[in-house]
Design brief:
Layout: E1 4-5, H1 26-29, E2 34-35, H2 36-40, H3 43-55, E3 79-81, H4 100-104, H5 116-133, H6 142-167, H7 184-187, H8 194-211, H9 227-242, H10 263-267, H11 284-297, H12 339-347, E4 359-361, H13 375-382, E5 393-395, H14 397-402, H15 433-437, H16 457-462, E6 463-464, E7 468-470, E8 483-485, E9 507-508, E10 535-536, H17 537-549, E11 555-558, E12 565-568, H18 572-585, H19 593-597, H20 599-613, H21 620-626, H22 630-633, E13 639-641, H23 650-653, E14 656-658, H24 677-682
Antiparallel strand pairs: 1-2, 3-5, 4-10, 6-9, 7-8, 11-12, 13-14
Helix pairs in contact: 3-5, 5-6, 6-8, 6-9, 8-9, 9-11, 11-17, 17-18, 17-20
């Protein structure tokens, strides 16, 4: 380790807001170099060092964000963006933009917009230096130093989690970091196996949870990790390790081996031929994943956020009586809550993060608001043109069909174009003014397709169907409020010979707040800040159910702190503990008892529940890969409505057709992202991800 290191002096110490969005280069701002001793014996400079360790967790490393370098975190086979659909790199090969089609077709190059690797290892280095030197600070209490050390350890392990999720097996570097002044040969290090990285994350997160002093942070420190954030990240790593991609691939019975082989595991080896992915199935990995989820649950710090019914005693949308949940109050039922607002308010900025018991880890609003990385930018790009938005983000018909009817049944015509569903036909007809007056199909206004009637509450919180309402309640101009938006050709928000229209005729409103508005110039100034739901409790609950469902045997697994031993098995009552809260908050009935008895049936239902509940939160892209469902799901034609029809032909507008200007496919190389040529040159023992080119 060098004796002298440059340090970035940052003004923000509380980390309620981590950093500004400028290019932060310590050498650029400081000519002098401070010794480690001077830095870590000064309270402020020590805090600044830790703050800089957090910096690399932003931008391309956000869990939930819009386009730019984070497009894979929110855009998948369910959510798309329609701008940037010119040729891949525009007129400039160095252009950082990429179209949805190019991204979904795997047409980007190895060096394209691929900064995550470098950012993560810089963050690992920064955090490692802090961990090894913070104890020398005489101006901090021992408790404070321990908490800070735990924060740095969390951040370091979280970088490994981000690397694992995107690149798979990666090198675990020496804790003091890599000396980049050495020759390429001297600093070369091969990838560690997938399981070694997971176990490293687990070990580090356990230690971080012991060092961190808080189960909950105040508003000023809301972006700092808690004990729960450490354990939740550990659970994520474990469930990825248990999933088919890293666990014997096709030997766990989830796939027909005639359809897919285990070529990815055979190809992903180090230069000495040692395998990086497990080739043998180990059921106990699911038990460890379930136990890790239970560790989070048993903290008793988290619950699903919910909004009570209004003082009138009525909900925005009242689900039909299921004979069970409808008759009970929260948390055993939905009788006293508003399911739609419970889900919508979780994301739209109506609830401050310190008042939200569901969010386990978040970058809060450290998302660089004024660019394409932020959640506010998702809203800007989703809002209709007539509301001042870009009108380019939307949903596929596949996603619309995934939502249940309000009684828990499938929508008529579900996936019929994909040779799925039950063979039923889509509903025809339209709502009337009298229907709206009589509140027959809440929240639908008049002239809306009956295909959108009587759907589950989460549907109305997330889907901007033609005829939905954008409230714009905060807009100073009365005429700009409460706007019913249609996506017909020629109507201003529908098809035009440019990019500002939803390609499928179906918009996207998750994260939109009814008070959000755009006054002029596509400004995000009047769009409410949205806390990033990087890890939330609903995800942990669904992972718990998923892991338990895969078990045939019974396993004894120690808790994270060694204070108790869990007996883990496919216990249906325990599985329900993971599923029931999510279904109740959504205003949906329970699955049938026969569904719980059949592992394959329940697996499909859990996957669908994740698809709906976690829409646009950076989960599905990676879920499809860890499940090895991507070769099927991401090779399907994208469908939407017939956007070329005008309002005069509204029946034809609602006909589902292939969306020719949205494309996707899947190839083996798309399981993991490539490593850049620069990194491969720097480390001659590092192998490229399967299917991608080497630099030589």
């Amino acid at each position: 380790m060098k004796n002298k290191i440059a340090i970035l002096m940052m003004s923000v110490l509380g980390l309620g807001s981590l950093t500004s969005c400028v290019d932060l280069d310590s050498d650029k701002y400081f000519e002098d170099r401070r010794t480690l001793e001077s830095v870590f014996t000064n309270r402020q400079q020590t805090q600044e060092w830790l703050a800089y360790a957090y910096y690399f967790i932003l931008r391309e490393n956000v869990d939930v964000g819009n386009k730019s370098g984070s497009f894979y975190s929110c855009f998948d086979d369910c959510v798309y963006y329609g701008d940037r659909d010119s040729k891949l790199f525009g007129d400039n090969k160095d252009d950082v933009r990429v179209s949805y089609n190019s991204y979904r077709m795997g047409l980007y190059e190895e060096d394209f917009n691929n900064y995550v690797w470098q950012m993560c290892y810089k963050g690992i280095y920064q955090a490692s230096v802090f961990i090894h030197h913070v104890d020398m600070n005489p101006q901090m209490s021992e408790t404070e130093k321990l908490d800070y050390k735990g924060q740095a350890r969390f951040v370091r392990a979280y970088y490994y989690w981000l690397l694992l999720r995107k690149y798979g097996p990666v090198p675990i570097v020496a804790e003091e970091g890599v000396d980049y002044t050495q020759t390429y040969e001297a600093m070369s290090q091969p990838r560690n196996t997938y399981e070694e990285v997971v176990e490293h994350i687990s070990k580090e997160m356990i230690q971080a949870a012991k060092e961190i002093q808080y189960y909950k942070r105040d508003q000023e420190n809301s972006a700092r990790p808690t004990k729960g954030a450490c354990l939740a990240t550990r659970a994520l790593a474990y469930i990825y390790a248990a999933s088919p991609l890293a666990n014997g691939q096709l030997k766990n019975g989830q796939h027909d081996t005639k359809l897919v082989d285990d070529k990815i595991a055979k190809d992903f080896v180090n230069k000495d031929g040692s395998p990086l992915l497990s080739t043998e199935y180990d059921e106990s990995k699911w038990a460890r994943a379930a136990a890790a989820c239970k560790d989070v649950i048993d903290l008793n710090q988290y619950e699903l956020y919910h909004t009570n019914k209004s003082t009138s005693g009525t909900a925005t949308i009242t689900p039909p009586d299921d004979g069970n949940f409808a008759k009970k109050n929260w948390p055993d039922g939905w009788a006293d809550i508003d399911p739609m607002l419970s889900y919508a308010n979780l994301f739209n900025g109506n609830v401050a993060i310190q008042d939200n018991p569901e969010i386990i880890f978040s970058r809060v609003d450290n998302m660089c608001r004024q660019n394409d990385y932020s959640i506010e930018s998702i809203v800007l790009h989703s809002m209709p043109v007539s509301c001042g938005g870009w009108n380019t983000n939307g949903l596929t018909q596949k996603m619309v069909d995934a939502y249940y009817m309000n009684d828990g049944t499938d929508v008529p015509g579900k996936d019929s174009e994909l040779n799925g569903g039950n063979g039923s036909e889509r509903v025809k007809g339209w709502t009337t003014r009298q229907d709206y007056k009589n509140k027959k199909y809440p929240p639908l206004r008049a002239n809306v397709s009956l295909q959108y009637a009587n759907r589950e509450p989460r549907f109305y919180a997330s889907v901007a169907f033609s005829g939905s309402v954008w409230e714009n309640a905060g807009h100073p101009t009365q005429s700009q409020r409460d706007k019913q938006i249609f996506y017909y050709r020629g109507g201003g928000d529908g098809y035009i010979n440019a990019f500002s229209y939803p390609r499928t005729g179906i918009g996207y409103r998750k994260f939109y707040n009814p008070n959000d508005y755009i006054e002029s110039g596509h400004s995000m100034a009047n769009i409410a800040a949205k806390p990033e739901p990087a890890i939330r409790y609903a995800d942990i609950l669904l992972m718990y159910a998923e892991a338990l469902n895969e078990l045939d045997g019974k396993y004894d697994v120690q808790s994270w702190d060694g204070t108790k031993t869990y007996t883990i098995s496919r216990d249906i009552e325990e599985i329900k503990k993971g599923i029931h809260p999510v279904r109740i908050r959504a205003g949906l009935p329970d699955f049938a008892e026969t569904d719980y008895l059949d592992k394959n049936v329940l697996r499909a239902k859990i996957k669908r529940e994740r698809m709906i509940e976690l829409l646009g939160e950076g989960k599905r892209y990676y879920d499809l890969r860890r499940w090895m469902d991507a070769p099927v799901e991401e090779s399907q034609q994208i469908y939407g409505l017939n956007v070329f029809m005008t309002e005069a032909n509204r029946d034809d507008f609602q006909v589902v057709i292939p969306t020719s200007n949205l494309q996707q496919t899947f190839a083996e190389k798309m399981y993991f992202w490539p490593v850049t040529f620069d990194e491969l040159k720097r480390n001659n023992l590092l192998v490229q991800s399967p299917g991608w080119r080497n630099y030589d």
